[in-house]
Amino acid sequence: MGNNLLQNWKDECYLLSSPLSISKQxxxxxxxxxxxxxxxxxxxxxxxxxFTESSPDSKSNWxxxxxxxxxxxxxxxxxxxxxxxxxxxxTLPKSIQKKFKSLFSDPRQFRDLFFELxxxxxxxxxxxxxxxxxxxGKKELDVVCTINEIEFLGECRKVYAPNINLLDxxxxxMEKLYLKLQKLNKGFGLIGTIKFHIPNSKNIKEVIExxxxxxxxxxxxxxxxxxxxxxxxxxxxxxxxxxxxVDSIEIEKNFAQYHLVFKVIPPxxxxxxxxxxxxxxxxxxxxxxxxxxxxKLFSALNEKSEQHANSKYQNKIYFIDSETIPxxxxxxxxMDSMFEEEKIKEFVNGFSENxxxxxIRREYMEDxxxxxxxxxxxxxxxxxxxxxxxxxxxxxxxxxxxxKKPIRINQIQPTQKKYxxxxxxxxx
Length: 428
Known about the structure:
The protein is an alpha+beta fold. It has 12 helices and 16 strands.
């Protein structure tokens, strides 16, 4: 049970919700409620993490990342939303419920489908008439809804940051390095750098891992005082040198040149004949030019439009999701500045007047979740635009931040049980 993320989350939140704590942050009943909904729906085994050197866990999903951040109140609120979406899921047709269950083993598709569920609940909560998962010929659609007496085909799409495959590789080697550096058999300060020359190569993980294994094997077998190790080929390179403060500063200055940097930092004042503690630092470098963000977004918008170009539904709304949480699956808009509204409007003017792009941005990084909706279309009807941008989620946040009063996160469901989540955030 020690590697069960859900149980670990509950244990940590029990400390935050202790009735004996003078800085109580949560209600224990809320912790129990979230825990029970997740355990009942997924089963506790879904949250067991297998993490070994030969096979670091590569199946972790966004729920796992939320669970390992129990002190971020926005992450707790996100878990609360997911728990209540699961409750809502039970009210939908069995065919939709079965499709969710079938995607447990594919974290990306499972998360994408959860956005569809989010949109379904958004429409229902705002009393917008809709039909979920209708068929058009042999093609299954996401939803058909009616706004201001106009029928729309509604399609959902999550858009992730460009070069997400490179980020996955960096995540993989961060996990590998954490485990492999523990196998070094002698105290020795070092600085290592890794570059991927062909990140999209099918065997890049095997190539770079072989380089790491070769270095560690040689390190453990040899007696030496100086490291100046370089292993380079067309796929990538691994370099390792002695740790010095000067070289550490130089590496940091040129950090943009590398994909990964790892350091084994010796103690400032080592004591002879006494075990000394060495500190390990791991850093990855991942930069995305705004031009690539814009290019990836426009490509996704074109793809959605072309996918339904021959649909019998003349009017269409494409719901585009950008969800930011503390994980490696970075969204298309990691910061507000990346949402270049004027450029998007200019691009969307090239589409039909019957197509609307509804951007839903959700951020769970700070104490308070941020949710915003922006509808953009060529000559978009102002009443429909206002209706979309005024959609209320069933997670309305009424925030009070102080040492004495808790954050109140109230969920109002007119036709269902009312849920209330109370969180106290420390004042910054």
